[in-house]
Write a structure and sequence with these properties.
single chain; alpha+beta; 9-stranded mixed sheet; Diadenylate cyclase
């Protein structure tokens, strides 16, 4: 390893420590697949991480070098598969040396969003490049939100390089650790999997299910039973998409979710916020709810045969559906998400009810609300473990979100910074609490 760059060595030490954690391994890799997963020797792994680090510091026509690579022998991939449901293996006629210059040359061809560089460990030569592995883009739906399923990443080490000094190491799709700005992190929090988030979306879920049951009673043919949490899952994915679009815009934004019963109060003069651009109370303001209901009804109808089998349908059937109407509705609901994300480009908050009713944008949170000196930083998804931190050093959006959540205990604020970090803020256990939402753990992406 080159002198002056200790970060890769520290990252490898962190990975080896995680590897000794049986609870962690049980979570990220099923025991049945553990036999095919081997951690390279420490020196070899340091060579791989250090080389990736060196490559990240190079430039490609003034653009940062970005790539993904997988440490797995080529023969372990099927020869006749490919995206969108499999991996397309392409083996070079001769292996290539594994160094930063070869990675720099290959990175433009190995499109970060579609292709991985395949390497294997030679007992005598160390890491060598065997070819390219075309994955397609469906893997990004876990980040952006969406219903399309991706081919599962095999239980192997995968390295993401997303910018200068920005490296993440995963087992398949599961993050082990990230190096970003000289700091090593293990961001495993995905707040959207928390019970409190599901409960927050319960009003939308309950309303759409009540309307769905009425439509089902009027149906001329049997409809399948739906998973009771299906509506909440759609809401989750839409919020993920809104956040990801704002993150990629590099301008940041603030989303405020309020109880549905506050809609009328917020549209008038109130002590909480001033909404500069308001939408009239027409059906178009509730498009998300109407699309969710149409998805539920369509899914239940096209899976009517499941009714006679006593089988419940839900997210699995939705993501695997080839039905054209489902595809159109899925596209429509994420067009709404992109539209909402675009509104955040205007200074101020985009204000939405928890039933996903879009009230307006350009919301200015009142400066008369009491400031917040200390906030709680949640260390787990449910906020059972927290640490108290000073609210100093954060931006205007964060401070405004803290003030609002301190006054309105039912509010949820999502703050997206220009550096793409995401905080989810709410009143929790007697204090303003925030979660760092980094579901993939991949810095810069």
């Amino acid at each position: 390893m080159r002198e002056g760059h200790s970060y890769p060595r520290e990252l490898v030490a962190f990975i080896h420590a995680r590897w000794r954690d049986e609870a962690f391994l049980d979570r990220v890799c099923p025991e049945a697949e553990r036999g095919s997963l081997q951690l390279p020797e420490r020196g070899v792994l340091e060579q791989v991480i250090s080389t990736c680090y060196q490559a990240s510091l190079l430039r490609e026509e003034e653009r940062p070098v970005m790539f993904r690579l997988i440490i797995r022998d080529s023969y372990l991939f099927a020869a006749h598969e490919g995206p969108p449901t499999g991996m397309h293996r392409l083996i070079f006629s001769r292996t290539r040396p594994f160094n930063e210059y070869e990675l720099h040359r290959l990175a433009p061809a190995a499109d970060f969003y579609r292709t991985l560089i395949g390497i294997f460990i030679d007992p005598a030569l160390g890491a060598q490049i065997w070819g390219l592995l075309h994955s397609g883009t469906r893997w990004m739906h876990a980040v952006y939100g969406g219903r399309k399923t991706s081919p599962p990443m095999p239980p192997s080490l995968v390295v993401y390089v997303t910018g200068p000094g920005q490296i993440s190491v995963c087992i398949g799709d599961e993050i082990i650790a990230s190096l970003n700005g000289g700091q090593i992190n293990c961001p495993t929090l995905d707040v959207f999997n928390s019970d409190w988030m599901m409960k927050s979306l319960a009003s939308l879920n309950d309303e759409t299910f009540a309307l769905h049951r009425k439509a089902r009673q009027r149906a001329e043919r049997p409809w399948a039973d739906l998973d009771p949490q299906f509506g909440s899952k759609i809401g989750q994915q839409a919020i993920r998409r809104i956040i990801s679009v704002i993150r990629n815009s590099n301008h940041g934004g603030l989303l405020v979710y309020l109880p549905a019963e506050m809609a009328e109060e917020i549209m008038e003069q109130n002590p909480y916020l001033t909404l500069k651009y308001q939408f009239l109370e027409f059906d178009s303001r509730q498009r998300f709810l109407s699309l969710t209901l149409r998805i539920m009804n369509t899914l239940a109808e096209i899976n009517g045969s499941a009714a006679s089998e006593g089988r419940m349908v839900g997210w699995h059937e939705y993501v695997n559906s080839k039905n054209e109407n489902i595809a159109l509705l899925d596209e429509a609901i994420f067009d709404v998400a992109h539209f909402i994300a675009a509104l955040s480009a205007v200074d101020g908050a985009v204000v939405i009810t928890k039933r996903q009713e879009l009230l307006g944008f350009g919301g200015v949170i009142s400066g008369d609300l009491d400031s917040v000196g200390m906030v709680a930083h949640a260390l787990d998804t449910e906020g059972e473990q927290c640490e108290s931190v000073l609210s100093e050093g954060v931006g205007t959006r964060h401070r405004a979100a803290y003030r609002l959540c301190q006054r309105l205990h039912q509010a949820i604020a999502i703050v997206i910074s220009q550096d793409e970090s995401v905080q989810i803020v709410r009143w929790h256990n007697g204090s303003v609490t925030y979660w760092d939402q980094i579901p993939t753990g991949v810095p810069g992406f």
